[in-house]
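Hi V.,

Quick status before I head out on leave. The structure for the redesign project is tokenized and pasted below; the design run finished overnight.
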């Protein structure tokens, strides 16, 4: 199934605005919000583009969503786009964090506050799980095939959750071989015909 053509942000200011708005929606993590805003709502990225960029953002050092914002912004408008996307992602939440941290210093031992923080942790887990399921939709078009892609995902989860391996080891043991196998499959695939 072919993915619909993607739109392009009109300018770096639009990137700043979009990343500011999505950062203000991302309580407990912004992966689900970023996907919804960039892929579903604004149609600035396709499912496969988002999955590829998110995979790269995951293995690079630093915060995943910041890596994604930098890569996407750079591709759209060079250094201006990268700076606009990253600034949009960080400015408003940083100001909110300073305000909330200032408030929490005086009330963090109160039982209702501790209960609210615990409840937010559960919501954050659900947001991450939902985003993971949305990303899984793109596995059907992966060069390793659906079973191969799910096998790689299962091996990574087993390494992280069951064996409790450090992320770097899982990337080396599962990620690098799967990248190599994907590259081999792509080399063997016939070239795509021009539309």
């Amino acid at each position: 199934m072919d993915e619909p053509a993607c739109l392009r942000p009109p300018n770096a200011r639009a990137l700043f605005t979009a990343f500011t708005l999505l950062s203000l929606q991302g309580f407990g993590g912004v992966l689900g919000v970023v996907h919804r805003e960039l892929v579903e709502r604004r149609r600035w990225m396709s499912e496969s583009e988002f999955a590829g960029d998110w995979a790269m953002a995951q293995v690079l050092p630093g915060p995943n969503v910041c890596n994604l914002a930098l890569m996407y912004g750079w591709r759209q408008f060079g250094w201006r786009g990268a700076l606009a996307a990253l600034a949009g992602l960080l400015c408003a939440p940083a100001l909110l964090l300073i305000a909330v941290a200032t408030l929490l210093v005086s009330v963090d031992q109160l039982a209702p506050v501790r209960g609210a923080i615990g409840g937010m942790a559960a919501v954050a887990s659900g947001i991450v799980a939902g985003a993971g399921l949305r990303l899984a939709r793109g596995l059907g078009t992966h060069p390793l095939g659906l079973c191969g892609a799910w096998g790689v995902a299962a091996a990574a989860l087993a390494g992280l959750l069951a064996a409790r391996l450090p992320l770097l080891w899982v990337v080396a043991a599962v990620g690098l071989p799967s990248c190599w196998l994907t590259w081999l499959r792509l080399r063997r695939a016939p070239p795509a015909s021009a539309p």
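Above is the designed sequence. The two ends are 14 Å apart (CA to CA).

G. will cover questions while I'm gone.

Best,
W.
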